[in-house]
Design a protein that fits this description.
heterodimer, A: about 200 residues, mainly alpha, 8 helices, flat, B: about 110 residues, alpha+beta, Arc Repressor Mutant, subunit A, 3 strands
Chain lengths: ~200, ~110
């Protein structure tokens, strides 16, 4: 990929972002490519070192605050016609409620996701507590002469401890997945405000 | 490494790279390389963030018929490094405690 193709590819993916943001990032990457070429890299190599245009565009998008994206979207859309305004006002009891509902659903999904994770760790904590209780019961029962019951408690404690440790690693993986998922949701939400502005 | 922790560390690393002398993007990456590998696409948002926090300023300088941006650390930037040094002493003492406990259990 040449420098020009790279610039075009990034530009295409940034769509309606403020011109200053696009120019700033392209200036930066062009400078980096030029500096690498000055050190002896070929144009192809220098461009490849930047990463893919998709990754760069999504990173710029992630770093641009949502209010800025919304503002750009608002500015880039044409002014409202009178009948559209009337419709907006008349329809407000309906669309405001729908919008609120959509926001609530979104927040609920988020809350459910993270509650599920809290539940998973709580379950893990219970297992750990079970292990501690099992071991304590083992010692107490042995001291009171209940040998068989004591060993039963020891076995239960070991099972709890083993599951707590194994599940802890599994839950960690799930949490990492959830973090990725929420990043993806934010990116998707931002992408709604970019790239579709002026296509009529 | 925890992503927030790494983010904070990289911010200070970039400031440290321009502490003694103004520098430009590619040079910063090269200076940091022996200590921490950082890609162009990682550095860019950091520079933007540091600039908007007024921890550094940018000035274009002509170089071989094109413009190259040089980054200059501000007083607040130097202050940020000092804060990091103070915080780090605390983190190191926690680290020493953790390692000591680990050895004690062996």
């Amino acid at each position: 990929m040449t420098k020009q193709q790279f610039v075009l590819a990034v530009c295409e993916r940034l769509g309606d972002l403020p011109q200053s943001v696009i120019d700033g990032s392209l200036d930066y990457y062009c400078e980096m490519i030029d500096d690498r070429m000055e050190e002896g890299a070929t144009e192809e190599e220098a461009v490849a070192a930047m990463g893919t245009p998709e990754d760069i565009a999504s990173q710029i998008l992630m770093e641009t605050p949502l209010p800025k994206l919304v503002k750009v979207k608002k500015e880039s859309s044409r002014g409202l016609r009178r009948w559209e305004m009337v419709l907006l006002v008349i329809g407000s009891p309906l669309w405001i409620i729908l919008l609120l509902a959509a926001a609530m659903i979104f927040i609920s999904v988020y809350a459910v996701l993270w509650s599920a994770i809290v539940v998973l760790y709580s379950a893990d904590l219970c297992l750990a507590a079970g292990a501690v209780s099992g071991f304590s019961a083992f010692v107490l029962l042995l001291m009171s002469g209940w040998i068989a019951q004591g060993f039963l408690m020891l076995a239960a404690g070991l099972v709890c401890a083993g599951s707590a440790i194994l599940l802890f690693f599994a839950f960690n993986k799930i949490t990492r997945g959830a973090v990725k998922l929420s990043r993806w949701i934010v990116l998707w939400l931002k992408s709604l405000f970019v790239g579709k502005g002026d296509k009529k | 490494m925890d992503i927030q922790l790494k983010r904070g560390l990289l911010d200070v690393c970039v400031l440290a790279a321009i502490k003694d002398k103004d520098s430009y993007g590619y040079q910063i990456i090269k200076d940091m390389k022996p200590y921490v590998e950082i890609s162009e696409s990682t550095l860019y948002p950091i520079l933007r963030r540091l600039e908007s926090a007024e921890l550094l300023t940018v000035r274009p300088v002509e170089h071989n018929g094109r413009l190259r941006k040089y980054y200059h650390i501000t007083e607040s930037g130097l202050e940020r490094i000092k804060i990091f040094e103070a915080e780090w002493k605390e983190i190191m003492s926690i680290y020493k405690f953790v390692v000591r406990e680990g050895k004690g259990n062996d």
